């Protein structure tokens, strides 16, 4: 991304609850249903799946934000209030799983800038992204417990891995919310910024991630989490295979040469 890049459309048909633009190699996807606090209805969840499965090859990172005062109020409760068929309920949850898998295991790293309420399915959505930034106004809740329902968008797996089963149990059993600082300490976010600064930080990080080689980013997105979940022996073997593929890529060879010939940046302390 350079300063001369102008914002342009991404070229994917989306429902009106989602808006996407791109600035060079970075796409910016917004939840755009602020009148319903970005509650995630079926159309929006399917739109997320479409966006992340059809991402153009030259989009190298995605920034995800929510319009209005809140990132997302989670599942659109009006759509489940009338649901009485258990199988339909399972399939509904599986639809969320598909959409969020497309985010977590898509072609580009996704950076979410959070603010206001990040609750229920909104937190499940954020947990499917790779880097999360919280503005100070952010708070997290899992009101499924109070609503008489359960997680269904992958939260049992992803949120529990981020903050631990014990915290998820506390939030669901008691309705406890975490503020931005508590969430940060618990492991929800990698960055905490002042109000109004989330998008800027996300664009800065996205530009960095977009400048990596596609092979390294593929390894980080697809291989690393699977290695982490596998038994150590299989994990180490997968790591070796992935390492060999990455270092043999022509882009990696060029980058290594650039460093050895003093053309590449050194690793310097940032804080
Ligand atoms: C909604 C939703 C929603 C707002 N589904 N319509 N999620 C929750 O239990 C969170 C429910 N929402 C809230 O607690 C609050 O709305 C907020 C704290 C997020 C924001 O409060 P506020 O005062 O800014 O807005 P509001 O007046 O509550 O809501 C504005 C409108 O959005 C209102 O509709 P209106 O027609 O009266 O204007 C609300 O009804 C509507 N709205 N949130 C439907 N969630 C895959 S499983 C995942 C399971 C879950 O995500 S459970 C958690 C559900």
Summary keywords:
alpha/beta, 12 helices, 271 residues, binds 3-methylmercaptopropionate-CoA (MMPA-CoA), three-stranded mixed sheet
Question: What can you tell me about this protein's structure?
Answer:
The two termini are about 25 Å apart. About 50% of the residues lie in helices and about 15% in strands. The protein is built from twelve helices and ten strands. Helix 1 runs parallel beside helix 3, helix 6 packs across helix 7 and helix 10 runs antiparallel to helix 11 (about 230-250). The model has no long low-confidence stretch (mean pLDDT about 95). The chain has a seven-stranded mixed β-sheet with strand order 1-2-3-4-5-7-10, with helices on both faces. Strands 6-8-9 form a three-stranded mixed β-sheet. The chain is globular and about 65 Å long. The longest helix has 19 residues, at about 85-105. It has helices at about 40-55, 75-80, 85-105, 120-125, 145, 155-165, 165-175, 180-185, 200-210, 215-230, 230-250, 250-260, and strands spanning about 5-10, 20-25, 25-30, 60-65, 110-115, 115-120, 130-135, 140, 180, 190-195. The chain is an alpha/beta fold and about 270 residues long. Bound molecules: 3-methylmercaptopropionate-CoA (MMPA-CoA). 3-methylmercaptopropionate-CoA (MMPA-CoA) binds near residues 39, 78 and 151.
């Amino acid at each position: 991304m350079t300063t001369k890049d102008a914002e342009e459309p991404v070229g994917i048909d989306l429902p009106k609850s989602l808006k996407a633009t791109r600035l060079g190699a970075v796409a910016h996807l917004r939840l755009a249903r602020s009148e319903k606090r970005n509650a995630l209805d079926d159309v929006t969840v399917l739109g997320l799946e479409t966006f992340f499965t059809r991402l153009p090859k030259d989009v190298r990172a995605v920034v995800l934000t929510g319009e209005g005062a809140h990132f997302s109020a989670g599942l659109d409760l009006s759509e489940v209030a009338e649901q009485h068929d258990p199988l339909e309920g399972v399939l509904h949850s599986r639809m969320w799983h598909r959409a969020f898998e497309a985010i977590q295991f898509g072609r580009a790293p996704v950076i979410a800038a959070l603010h206001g309420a990040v609750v229920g399915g909104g937190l499940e959505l954020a947990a499917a992204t790779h880097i999360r930034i919280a503005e100070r106004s952010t708070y997290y809740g899992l009101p499924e417990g109070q609503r008489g329902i359960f997680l269904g968008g992958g939260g049992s797996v992803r949120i529990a891995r981020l903050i631990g089963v014990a915290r998820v149990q506390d939030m669901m059993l008691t309705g406890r919310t975490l503020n931005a600082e508590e969430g940060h300490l618990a492991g929800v976010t990698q960055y905490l910024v002042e109000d109004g600064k989330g998008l800027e930080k996300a664009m800065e990080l996205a530009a960095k991630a977009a400048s990596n080689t596609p092979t390294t980013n593929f390894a980080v997105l697809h291989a690393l989490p699977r290695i982490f979940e596998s038994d150590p022996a299989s994990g180490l073997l997968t790591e070796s295979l992935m390492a060999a593929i990455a270092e043999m890529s022509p882009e990696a060879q060029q980058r290594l040469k650039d460093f050895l010939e003093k053309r590449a940046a050194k690793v310097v302390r940032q804080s």
